[in-house]
Amino acid sequence: MHHFLIVIMLATAPTLSANTIDSIRIPTQNDKSFDVVFEKIIKESNSYKDFKLITNPDLSIISTAHKAEVAALNNSIVDLEEKLNTVKNQLDKELDKIKDLKKPSPITSDMILMYGGVLGLLLLFLIVYVLKNKKLKDVAVSQKSSLDAIEVEFDEFKRSAMERELKIKRELMDEKNKNKQH
């Protein structure tokens, strides 16, 4: 019985195909999705009892729409995979940066230059301080020796001034005593 239905379908297919081709519109640019094309062909195809009759041109249209849909999906999958790989690479770079922050960094030429410059400046300030301190010490020593010499001279002047004063007082006393006696 099953073979009988197939033979009947094949025998009536040429007469039905003319009606089917005229009644089915070829999908436009907007109707290119596989689902839309498939639904239109099912709705617009002829029925024979419980079977839908679909002609070869209709199957070709479905096949073309299906291939286009699969190609579009494959393209979107490739694009999404590329985006995913890009995001993964960026994430890996950021993770590497974070790991680098945790690692103790080796001494680089920049660090040597920076710390060498700081130590050089500190050493320069120390040398300038020591030289100024030495110069100030020399000045202080020379002024102290000058002060000591002035003090010695002043003490000598003071002693000589006292001797003169005493000498003058004695002379004055001697003159007073002479005047009293006379």
Task: Explain what you see.
- With 182 residues, the chain is mainly alpha-helical.
- Helix content is 84%, strand content 3%.
- The protein contains four helices and two strands, in the order ααββαα.
- It has helices spanning 2-23, 34-44, 56-102, 109-181, and strands spanning 46-48, 51-53.
- It has a two-stranded antiparallel sheet.
- Strand 1 (46-48) and strand 2 form a beta hairpin.
- Helix 2 (34-44) packs antiparallel against helix 3 (56-102).
List keywords for this structure.
single chain, disordered N terminus, 182 residues, mainly alpha, 3% strand, two-stranded antiparallel sheet
Topology:
Elements: H1 2-23, H2 34-44, E1 46-48, E2 51-53, H3 56-102, H4 109-181
Antiparallel strand pairs: 1-2
Helix pairs in contact: 2-3
Between the first and last Cα atoms, what is the distance in angstroms? 192 Å
Order of helices and strands: HHEEHH
Low-confidence stretches: 1-31
Overall, the morphology is: rod-shaped
- What count of helical segments does DSSP give? 4
| Biggest sheet features | 2 strands, antiparallel
Instruction: Label the structural class.
Output: mainly alpha
Question: Could you estimate the helical fraction of the residues in percent?
Answer: over 70%
Number of strand segments = 2
Q: In percent terms, what proportion of residues is strand? A: under 5%
Radius of gyration equals: 61 Å
Mean pLDDT: 79
Going across the major beta sheet, what is the strand order?
Answer: 1-2
